[in-house]
Design a protein that fits this description.
single chain, alpha+beta, globular
């Protein structure tokens, strides 16, 4: 995934340590054959409509050779089933607006774009500046 997004990958030991100490509420669903070919990472969010919990899908990733194989759809189906089993009211996620193949995939699942929502991110210097700001 890191290679796909063109960002540096931490050392393997760091990845294993991070996986062993996931924050509470983080879950990883895995698609595998004889090896891991994809995953979905989500967290429970609250509140949603009717004050019900939901899932926020942070990452859905399938290795390039397996895209179009149905692995992503199976991961999303498993996430939807888990949400319903737990009484969650919805699953939310973001998508790269310029990736038409991805947008078509999500639309094909029945996902609907939310034009009234805007995705924001606070990171780096802006995150540090806000944290240091006086009340």
């Amino acid at each position: 995934m890191q290679r796909h997004y063109r960002v540096p990958c931490p050392p393997f030991e760091t990845i294993l340590a991070d996986l062993a100490t996931l924050p509470p509420g983080v879950e990883i669903l895995v698609a595998e054959t004889d090896r891991i070919i994809g995953f979905a990472i989500c967290s429970t969010i609250y509140p949603g409509p009717g004050l019900r919990a939901g899932f926020f899908l942070k990452e859905l990733f399938v290795l390039g050779p397996y895209r179009g194989s149905g692995a992503g759809r199976l991961l999303m189906q498993a996430l939807a089933r888990t949400a319903l089993q737990r009484g969650h009211g919805r699953v939310d996620w973001t998508a790269d607006g310029g990736n038409e193949r991805l947008l078509t995939f999500y639309g094909g699942l029945g996902g609907t774009r939310q034009p009234d929502k805007v995705f924001f991110r606070l990171s780096g210097e802006a995150l540090a500046a806000l944290a240091k700001a006086d009340d």
